[in-house]
Amino acid sequence: MKSLLNKAPKKVVLASGNQGKLIELQQMLSGLDFEVFPQSDFNVDSVEETGLTFVENALIKARHAAKLSGFAAIADDSGIEVDALNGQPGIYSARFAGEQATDKANNQKLLQSLNGLPKEQRTARFHSVLVYLRHAEDPTPLICHGRWEGYILDAPVGDQGFGYDPLFYVPDQDCAAAELSREQKNRISHRAKAMAQLLEQLKERS
Questions:
Q1: Distance, CA of 177 to CA of 2 (rounded, Å)
Q2: What is the structure's pLDDT at 140?
Q3: Would you please indicate which residues are annotated as catalytic (active-site) residues?
């Protein structure tokens, strides 16, 4: 059994340029024996996400960050799946309204796409896939998937969070995701669920 005494913290790179994700992931990882750094600290630029699934894109980002930094890497690929739109925006959530789209533009396009649909046809869910690689050539990455069920409101509500949070109604909280505090969201969100799985798997590996 490996001794946990005097064990130096492991450096891990967060393969993301999204500040909202970065803050959430740093907070969620704060209890582990990790020193967490954004990929920008190692001059790692964004990599083209050529995958067709959240899993493929998370692996692409994690391998890129691990290769260029020389450290373990964690990547998240996440987005919102809307049933009435056959799963869109999905992996294109961050660029639904165009390559350089703002959160506001993406939200406006989603509202326009669902214009006139009643509540029962506005079901949706957030997905988060987290990938952990010990190094760039790791043949057995840890892959964790969290889901968060809800539906799309007909107007934005709240000023917390980022992305589609102002439009995502959370039934068991009776509010939009953007009305939750950061602490609340970090307990119940899709990313929180994926992170809980990842933390368990990391503990088993240590």
A1: 41
A2: 95
A3: 77
